[in-house]
Amino acid sequence: MKKSNKLGITIVLIIFVLIWILPILYAVSTSFKSELAALSWPIKLIPEKFTLEGYLTPLRNPSAPVLVWFWNSFLIATIHTVLAVSFFTMAGYSFARLKFKFRDQIFAILLATMMVPGIMNLVPLYLVVRNLGLVDTKWAMILPGLSGIFNVFLMRQFFLKVPKSLEESAIIDGASPIQIFFKIMLPLVKPGLLVVAIFSFIGNWNDFLWPSIVTNDVYQRTLPVGLAMMKGNYGGRFNMQLALVIISFVPVVILFSITQKYIMRGLSGSSGIKE
């Protein structure tokens, strides 16, 4: 590739990076400004005087337990992730390796459900949750997401890439199906496990619509729902609004930054087996 082409591509990429990162820098900067400085013009990315007013004022609001919402989101997302990885892994292994009647037909029907818009399931799903007595409980936000078929499909593809010769050798050596699953198969699909775990955690953490439907008690709400509820209290206070936004997305950014290479390895189809 010519140097001029490389330079042009580099400039275009830099422009796209700036377009993406400038709003984030503005949000972070404004969250550390006073209420008056946040409204001043022209906009200054570096505050003349740093203040924690935007963070401390919402945290001190007795009618809006932000720390409780943060803990609820973390606890719900963590439990959901553990259960999701367990269920999706076992389901993916079943459809990839186990032989049972109508296996492929059942999997095809499950894949077809992905074409149904999720919003169409809200009413029947709410009725199920209500009849089970789970409204205003954390389980109402943990369990429904475990029915996602995409992660089952993802794990199935990872298991299909594991050579059958490894499984057959283990059977000859006298390994039980449980030993084969935990000691041979799972270590070879670690990238897939990490991708499913990260997607499950981030998806549950960012979920707004479903938690807003199944929670009425302010102390059972998650962070996205709680912060949306607080928006009316700080309508013109941009520093406080943006501080709340930063509180909500910092954990996700940290998680993604730490696990980025594993996500790329998993999405590229690597199963941990050397060619």
Describe the structure.
With 275 residues, this protein is mostly helical. It has a single domain (60-267), classed as MetI-like (MetI-like fold, Orthogonal Bundle). 69% of the residues lie in helices and 0% in strands. The longest helix has 32 residues, at 66-97. The chain is globular and about 75 Å long. The two termini are 30 Å apart.
Short description:
The protein has 275 residues and is mainly alpha-helical. The chain contains 14 helices and no strands.
- In CATH, what is the class? Mainly Alpha
Averaged pLDDT: 82
**What helical percentage do the residues reach?**
55-70%
Termini, distance in Å?
Answer: 30 Å
DSSP summary, beta strand count: 0
- How is the CATH topology named? MetI-like fold
CATH second-level architecture:
Orthogonal Bundle
Number of domains: 1
**CATH superfamily caption:** MetI-like
Instruction: Tally the helices.
Output: 14
Over all CA atoms, what is the radius of gyration?
23 Å
The rough form would be described as globular
